[in-house]
Design goal:
The chain is of the alpha/beta class. The protein folds into two domains: 168 residues, P-loop containing nucleotide triphosphate hydrolases (Rossmann fold, 3-Layer(aba) Sandwich), CATH 3.40.50; 68 residues, no CATH class. Helix content is 38%, strand content 26%. Strands 6-7-8-3-9-10 form a six-stranded mixed beta sheet, sandwiched between helices. The chain is globular. The termini are far apart. Bound molecules: adenosine-5'-triphosphate. Adenosine-5'-triphosphate (ATP) binds next to helix 1. It comes from Lactobacillus hominis DSM 23910 = CRBIP 24.179.
Length: 247
Amino acid sequence: MALKIEHLSGGYAGTTVIKDVNLTIEPGQALGLIGLNGAGKSTTIKHLLGLIRMQKGTISLNGVQLMQNPTKFKQMVAYIPETPILYPELTLKEHIELVMLTYGLDKEKAWVRAHELCKMFRLDNKLDWLPINFSKGMKQKVMIVTSFLADSDLLVIDEPFTGLDPLAVANFIDLIKQAVSQKKMVLMTTHVLAQAQEAVQKFAVLNNGTIEVEGSLEQIRKHYGLSDSDSIDRLYQILNQEQLHHE
Ligand SMILES: Nc1ncnc2c1ncn2[C@@H]1O[C@H](COP(=O)(O)OP(=O)(O)OP(=O)(O)O)[C@@H](O)[C@H]1O
């Protein structure tokens, strides 16, 4: 039982962006994938979701290989994209019902959870609203509510904190922690390391398409020679210098 990305190479027609990426997430573990803009974080996620074709390697979740059984694999995954993807003609209530149908959830139990989640994000009186009426942050909250409702084994989250108010960020972090305590797996990409650290035990630094180092934020600090008084965001300056040196 784990997510295993092994020797993954891939990218877009004719170009290799990701090179020999290896990552494992055990049940009850959240991994933060970090790196400069363009390092390949979203590309890794696109591979994980089966949206683009890998060039080499394997991805398996709980023993199910993505390439061999994509339907079964995807049933175990929920995804929160950086930019919310909602159906313009469906209300919040209908989005919730769609998730129940897609993931084969028990409607009665799922509605109890859905109300809980909607209340947490102050959406409980907006069940009949259409996406056009929601602000950017509200749309993001709808994605969070529907993804956590799915109760999947693996939660993939791209830049979770964009556009959320501090209250919603705190609730989101609590939900991730709760999922981890329930032995779920979480993969999140983020630039907001201080906040991510509250929910994530392990980070992996993606640099130029390869994993440069993996470990706790402390171990990553050490790897890049950061002192205790350095802000963790200095990591990005170091990665940038490395990249300039590389080019
Ligand atoms: N659809 C695409 N077609 C071709 N190249 C792409 C495409 N999307 C991304 N790339 C390239 O792949 C590389 C990695 O991009 P990716 O979006 O994975 O980076 P990222 O780490 O997620 O960056 P950010 O922090 O900005 O979201 C970049 O060089 C980018 O130009």
